[in-house]
Amino acid sequence: MSFASPAVLLVLLAVPLLLVWYVGQQRTRQAAAATFATPALQANVAPRRPGWRRHAPMVAFALALVVLIVAAAKPQKTVAVPVERASIMLATDVSRSMDATDVAPNRLVAAKRAARAFLDEVPARVNVGILAFNRVPRVLQSPTRDRDGVRGAIDKMTASGTTATGDAIDAGVRVLRAAKDRNGRRPPGAIVLISDGKATRGRDPVVAAQAARRVKIPVYTVALGTPQGTLTVPKRGGGTTTEPVPPDPASLAQIARASGGKAFTAQTASGLKEVYQRLGSQLGHKNEKRQVTSSFAAGGLALLLLGALMSMRWFGRLI
Q1: Less packed terminus of the chain by CB within 10 Å, N or C?
Q2: pTM over 0.70
Q3: Domains of the chain, with CATH numbers?
């Protein structure tokens, strides 16, 4: 909770003074009653005292005053609202190592399923594009609200080749910078990059991430796979061999930091889906401050009315 006019809250310092005045009034009333009759005779000559009811209206009035002062300070709360004009590029590593089966049924299939889960979390008005990269990046779908087109692009991804992560970031930045809204302005953009290993060719990905940061396009990285991940590949002379293909979360975390994004890791298909769903909700919404003055004002007026009703019912006067 925050306040648009916090200085108004200084008026709350007057509330304790009001309470001191009220206590003083009660003592004056008790002193006046004592001069009317001795304490031993007061029960016979004075009407029955109202007890706690005497103070209930004043308590309601005091609380109403506090709430109305808070309302005058224009209280605000932070709420998540859908981003109407954002564009997000899903950049997926489709190098040969994505065929590893340590993430069932294999890394690439798990990545495709998670990308579909991401689409379910992103608000319908957010544009989503698809980029696949191995030794070269390929834009399979420019940012669009056409979810069927995006799902079709996801289905086209197949694994082969090496990894050019830096080139993929460059390609994603170019696409996002080219996007324009109805007013000709570039909407907010972000890249979600999923990979399972180090860049093996192309531009330095950290340098590419720094360039992305300069144009305010953060890169959110997801390191996919387990340290025990292996891949069976054919040998030149015949037969097959097993190669280790562990993920490299440290390099991906460095990319995220350099771009102003965040880094995540996923060692299972369910963990990857959870990360994508979280990113979909996070990137598809932004935090905004909304005033809740009317709620506080209504509460203060309700307390004033309650105090007045109690005073009229029990004592036949407003105060």
Answers
A1: N
A2: no
A3: 2-78+290-315 (no CATH), 84-283 (3.40.50.410)
